[in-house]
Design brief:
This protein has 850 residues and is an alpha/beta fold. It has four domains: 7-320, Glycoside hydrolase, family 3, N-terminal domain (TIM Barrel); 343-581, Glycoside hydrolase family 3 C-terminal domain (Rossmann fold), CATH 3.40.50.1700; 625-764, Immunoglobulins (Immunoglobulin-like); 776-850. 30% of the residues lie in helices and 19% in strands. The protein is globular.
Length: 850
Amino acid sequence: MTLEEKAAQTQAPFGSAVDVHTPPVTGWGNVTAGLSTLGLPPREAVHRANELQRKHVEDTRLGIPVLLAEEALIGFKVRDATTFPDAIAQAATWDPELIEEMARTIGTQMARLGVRQALSPLADVARDPRWGRVEETYGEEPYLVGTMATAFVRGLQNADARVPLIATLKHFLGYSASDGGRNTEPAQLGPRELREIHGVPFEMAIREGGARGVMPAYNAIDGVPLTGSKSYLTGLLREEFGFDGLVISDLAAVGQLHTKHGTAEDEAHALAQALRAGVDLNLDNKVSAEQIVEAVRSGVIDEADLDRAVSRVLLAKFRLGLFENPYAEAEPVPETFDSDQERALSRRIAEKSVILLRNEPVGDAPVLPLSPSLRTIAVIGPNADRPMGQLGDYSYQVLDSMTTRFHLAADPQARPEDVEDLAGRGSPDDARLMVESVPVVTFLEGIRRRAGDDVNVLYEPGCPVAGEDRSGFGAAVRAASAAEVAVVVVGDQSGINGFGTVGEGLDSTECALPGVQRELVEAVVATGTPTVVVLSHGRPYVLGWMADSVPAIVSSFFGGEEAGNAVASVLFGDVNPAGRLPIAMLRSAGAAPLPYWRTLQQPTYVDGSIGAVFPFGHGLSYTRFDYRDLEIESPQVPTDGVVRLSFTVVNVGDRAGDEVAQVYGRDVIARTARRGRTLVAFRRLHLDPGAATRVTAEVPTSMFALWDVDEGWVVEPGSIKFFVGGSSAAIRLRGEVTLTGKDHFPGPNRPLTSTVTAGPVASDGLASRQRRELGPVEPVTQDNTVREWLGHPVGGELLREALGGLDEDVLAPALDLTLRQMVAFSGGRFPLSLLDELLAKMNSRIGDGS
């Protein structure tokens, strides 16, 4: 290969800024967004893909095929491809098998158009709700993030045995831990947090998912930019994590080594630094092949570094079979990738992602599900009938509508209304669809379809998403007053660096409902009409005020094209909600960053709380589940062993539903400070009324390994506590194991995941048998100690729920106080009303035997 041909293979021009369909005589290594920016239906796009490929194969001297790449996090980002729920919504399903199925569907669509690389998924661990890109992540828990990312990688890369694909993990590493939640800002991470929190999901997706691509993050860690770090991209990623695939930079990130970070004196030295670090492809808005050639000839770039990058690009293409099969078969490509089957999958994911946050009684019964006798429903809110208000930032509709708008700004013949507000970041209220693609069912449409012709559905938007126009309040209040129930749909508008309230480059200081939406909700609630708030959003909110005033709250993280039908199914009770929060909703944005295990400890502020209004893993159901009979196979397990624990989950309600059983662990004493509670296993279960299932979790002790800067991964002997329940705070069962023997050094190839199995158990008479085994239960009173309450078969569960799942180690100083004293000495944290509420609930449960 000539120097020019080698330089060309490291180039990845971005399609909206470069005419990628007119390649140079040396071709390119990769083309990103070359099809999405055409705005063509699949049958036309495949011909353009093949023509671009032909120009590389037939019109260049070496005939090296080009690697086509597109975004794919929430669907193949081209026109007429299914728009699935956002990544944070996918995580809310707690169903990795379902996400693997979705990724297979996306991969199949990619393969049909000849696109071989997906710039997805994110393996970032969300730490700060202020960060706008939380919506693109799988949440705040490393194990949940890693499980979902691994499922996505497996599904996409194995979608078609005849057409290998590359899933690209991003953003390596610590991108989500930026200072203040500000996008691309530095992250201040030590080596332990880097590996134990942020590195684990990448390890899981590489070692267990087989991810073939990685994208470095924009940011720097302790002053070292990831894109230019050999220590991270070669030492950690390749040598320690075992990655042997393709590294592609983020858009324009190589140039930022000069322009942003100042670690390179000019663009040529930035290219040298990135190649030396381990970057193989330079994704950019411009082409830098000639600059690479000049830099090699002048000695700025070592040709050996260039050769190493080129060899990896060529190896990736050989592994994909591109040299043998560079073209896509055009004939089988359908008119649309959004078939009935694919829409049904999008709806199923959306339905499983809906989270019932709160459902308190109004009168004799909870507000949800909605009564079939209703004849008038008011649907209110700025996101009730806005397709753009339910789509994630990397959906084709959102991103390419913005791209279209920016293109129009440079067109002197464009209409002024199409390009208004482009001088700044753009108002979220100006965001609108400017591209053709798949139909999007809004919440209003979904509710009207499900309610039927016999129900009068009133609609008023009430206010804009982000503006302060209150002129619609009066109409909204009148609609609510005239209805038997009001459904208020509020939330976000997703965008990228503009035209949004959340998304890439759209960070927040408050994590509050944008604009005057809170005032709209309060005005509707003040009418006295029973109110349901539906959140269509991309970030967790501070919702203490809403939890104190609104009887029913539903979270629909951006639910994609079928969000309207999915939420309507939940509201009317056709679907029993079972989504669970993948990131907590805090009481104060000022407390962030705040991992969920910290929310379960004592407060540290004089003017606020570190607690969560709705904790990690939280979600309600229209039925009720009981946890029973925790058994741990052995109280002592060697440090290189496996902990096996089993428990029973029973549906004690009167309708079928799903429960997400969650197992948390805690290393009590260690050489380094350990997390107070960490997820080690989970399983989504479906149970009919009265049915029971026995869940068995096999947890490798290596999941409790800590990182020692001198000795590497270490599993120490000592006590491990286990917590089992329906959320990080709703713990129903507790157990303990002692790890025995010497320190175990599992090395980088340590087991990273647990195995969970579930099978039905005989449920005939199960509940009554449990009650008989308990025998007569005497109630405890306000004058019993906290220790006695926690040990009580009924009072213990109620007190733990009331205390928000506080770790009992935190409660140790209060264990010998009476319940009355604990409340009196809490400084107002626990209200006096807690005493009467606990006694009433306990007497009720003892009375009905539940």
